[in-house]
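Table 4 source record.
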Amino acid sequence: MVAVLAVGVLGSFGPAAAAEHTRSGACGRFGSGCGTEAVLSETRLGRTALQWVEDNGVQVIYRAGGASYYDGDAHAFYIDTNQSPEERANTFVHEVNHAEHHDADIGDLGREEFVERSIDEEVEGTVEAIQNNRQLQRNRGGNGPDTLLQREYEDAYDDAVTKARRARSELGLPALDDETARRAGERAGRERVEQAFANGEVVSSLDGDTYAENYGEAWDDAHNCLLRIFC
């Protein structure tokens, strides 16, 4: 099954287009967001994301359609209001990760390193969105749908903790403490998300291509490569 990730850092809108979307967007700019900020305020990760955006002057543009992504040149990110408020909140957290950690320099890095670092950024944002949704579900008494790759993340998390506890028991060691269990689970969950990006299980909502393909093509375009022959 292929999952479509409606977030990324492949946007091509510049400041002029951002202003146009700000004027015409159904939800206006940061500060309203069709209830997005209200949902974000329910979680620790959401509140942290809101504060970071306010402190760093990132422009947030809500509009229907066009997917969701961060535009580093415009220092802005776009949120697709066709999502539910909960999914918009998870996307918001994901995009703040892009804005905060967007350090893969397409001009200075080689192709392979650029693609690897860019996908690592996508993985980190996806994991943070999952963790935000888990916080939201817990705060709402376990209610609410899962977000992208959450079930896969949680299955890997639970499996890793179960195996670690069983191994310690078989060796006659003290029971696994909660903090060690959490670290083992989060490490396994992240590895499962990485796997989904690596094997093409996740594709971009912008064009249906894998993220490795999109970031590779972006590097080729930036370096004027033709079919990678003249790189």
